[in-house]
Amino acid sequence: MCHVIVTCRSMLWTLLSIVVAFAELIAFMSADWLIGKAKPSSSEEVDNRTGGPQEPYRPTLGIYGRCTRISHMQFSRRDTLCGPYAENFSEIASGFWQATAIFLAIGIMILCTVAFVSVFTMCVQSIMKKSIFNVCGLLQGIAGLFLILGLILYPAGWGCQKAISYCGPYASAYKLGDCSLGWAFYTAIGGTVLTFICAVFSAQAEIATSSDKVQEEIEEGKNLICLL
């Protein structure tokens, strides 16, 4: 018989697992890893909101994508175009970024799997006599290690030709040149920290769902158990 067990700690762990998976996925897909050096706008270009000249635009570069402005001859208007610069894996700008993409993709796949499984932990608490929380926590720890490897290798690719075209000639491995780090890089770091927090917190979720209070409610014949 399936017993639906909901506790504050197990629900918090489930929500954190889902948030971490989505945060890492969004960061990976974003082009806002590097913010390039400012490109001055033409004196003819006018900001439609203020009526004054447009501020210099800073293009962005991701692991496999980029955002830049494309000029239109009519009315000197410019549109921001975002999309992948690499049509296939081999066209990613740096071998280090290729490795980063692999490690991040593996870590994100594990996190998404755990996030999916975590939804069902309210009804299923063990698999083959092993706590599903402990198994998921172990997987999250492994995913965190893959994410760390990817984030460590990423700055080593700042010396590639693609990064130099965005960040200037002084850009090199672990040196940003004229670039700055975008929100996607910080989101990936924050998600990695939360991944390890989730891995540790999974033990608390397991304790909460196997407590004496829960066992007492099961013995009383309750199928839906909600505890603070």
TrEMBL record:
InterPro entries noted in UniProt: LHFPL
Keyword Disulfide bond: no
Compartments, as annotated in UniProt: Membrane
Gene Ontology cellular component terms for the protein in this record: membrane
One record GO biological process: single fertilization
Keyword field: Fertilization, Membrane, Transmembrane, Transmembrane helix
Topology term for the membrane: Multi-pass membrane protein
Keyword Methyltransferase: no
Pfam families in the cross-refs: L_HMGIC_fpl
Ranges that cross the membrane: 12-35, 96-120, 132-154, 183-203
Record PANTHER family: LHFPL TETRASPAN SUBFAMILY MEMBER 2 PROTEIN, LIPOMA HMGIC FUSION PARTNER-LIKE PROTEIN
Family designation: Belongs to the LHFP family.
Protein name: LHPL2 protein
Species whose genome carries this gene: Vidua chalybeata (Village indigobird)
Gene name as annotated: Lhfpl2
